[in-house]
Specification:
By secondary structure, this protein is α+β, with helices and mostly antiparallel strands. 33% of the residues lie in helices and 21% in strands. It folds into two domains: 220 residues, 3-Layer(bba) Sandwich (Glucose Oxidase, domain 1); 67 residues, no CATH class. It is built from ten helices and 13 strands.
Length: 312
């Protein structure tokens, strides 16, 4: 086994192709509130059913739940978008790039060969993607000679994940990326150049971490976070809060439908609906749910769960 010796510490650490890559044990250690299923690499695996329900969640609904749980730095906007009319939802697989440093790059490439990694470093995280993943990349906003994703890598990302990207940097071949109907993506910019991540006369960027914490603007993202991108912005939901986010969203959606209907009918005033609901209104809402259970934009089983938790 190849090891890196930490001078003066008397420690021998396993060599990795990326210095910042988290091991399975570290991913488990740093996501302690997740008690559910995990991928073999240690990433939390939020259930497909939760991801499907997340498609209808608004940024405001997700933000409110996260804010109440004291997660204050999970939102980022100011993006260019590919397919802006669609919603991006998936589990984060992360990567971080830094300005090129040839001594470190040389070690990364040598260890990558030992690990039998294929192609340039920009392909290494892509090879790890699973269905439903979103590739989340901190490329420090790099533009000139920065794009590590073009239509070839983009097609590989889409083939493996069926999803798009959140990329804090520039992409290339944007016309080709737009041809993929469901490659819903959030990027910082576009540039026709491309990165030079392998050692050479124009070497300029180094892939320093995979499956590690990354900073996307003002947001901190962990591997396995649920990505929700829509309306020009992205929010990163810690996996242990994902189910709470969708449940809260569904209740808000149903209460809004009920309230709007009753206002149109003239049964209640705006002041009654905007304020804390009386017991009579709450009972009316529960009865309305039962009467319309198969006609609402929330699955029957979810409405049944809501009714079980209600005291009216």
């Amino acid at each position: 086994m190849f090891v890196l010796i930490v001078a003066g510490a008397g420690l021998a650490l396993p060599a990795r192709a990326q210095p910042g890559a988290f091991s399975k044990a570290e991913l488990v250690q740093y996501t302690p509130e997740w008690k559910g299923e995990r991928f073999p690499d240690g990433r939390p695996r939020v259930a497909d059913g939760i991801l499907k329900r997340m498609q209808a969640v608004t940024l405001e609904e997700a933000w409110s739940v996260l804010r109440n749980a004291n997660f204050n730095y999970q939102y980022e906007d100011g993006w260019m978008t590919i397919h802006p009319d669609k919603v991006l939802v998936g589990r984060a697989l992360t990567a971080v790039w830094m300005p090129g440093r040839p001594d470190v790059q040389k070690v990364i490439e040598e260890v990558g060969k030992k690990e039998k990694r294929i192609g340039g470093t920009n392909a290494w995280p892509v090879d790890m993607l699973q269905p439903g993943d979103v590739y989340v990349v901190d490329h420090y906003g790099n533009k000139l000679d920065g794009p590590s994703i073009g239509d070839n890598v983009g097609n590989s990302i889409y083939a493996k994940s069926g999803n798009g990207i959140v990329y804090d940097g520039a992409v290339r071949d944007i016309a080709g990326l737009q041809e993929m109907e469901n490659f819903t993506s959030f990027i910082r910019s576009y540039h026709p150049s491309h990165h030079f991540g392998m050692l050479g006369p124009r070497f300029n960027t180094t892939l320093m971490g995979i499956n590690c914490p990354v900073r996307i603007g003002q947001a901190t993202v962990m591997p396995g976070d649920v990505v929700l991108g829509r309306n020009g912005a992205v929010i990163f939901i810690p996996p242990h809060l994902a189910e709470q986010v969708v449940k809260t969203s569904e209740v808000v959606r149903l209460r809004d439908m009920f309230g709007h209907q009753r206002l149109r009918e003239g049964k209640y005033t705006a002041g009654q609906i905007d304020a804390r609901w009386s017991e009579a209104i709450e009972k009316d809402f529960s009865n309305w749910l039962r009467q319309h259970i198969d006609k609402l934009p929330v699955a029957r089983e979810q409405i049944q769960e809501i009714l079980k938790e209600r005291t009216w």
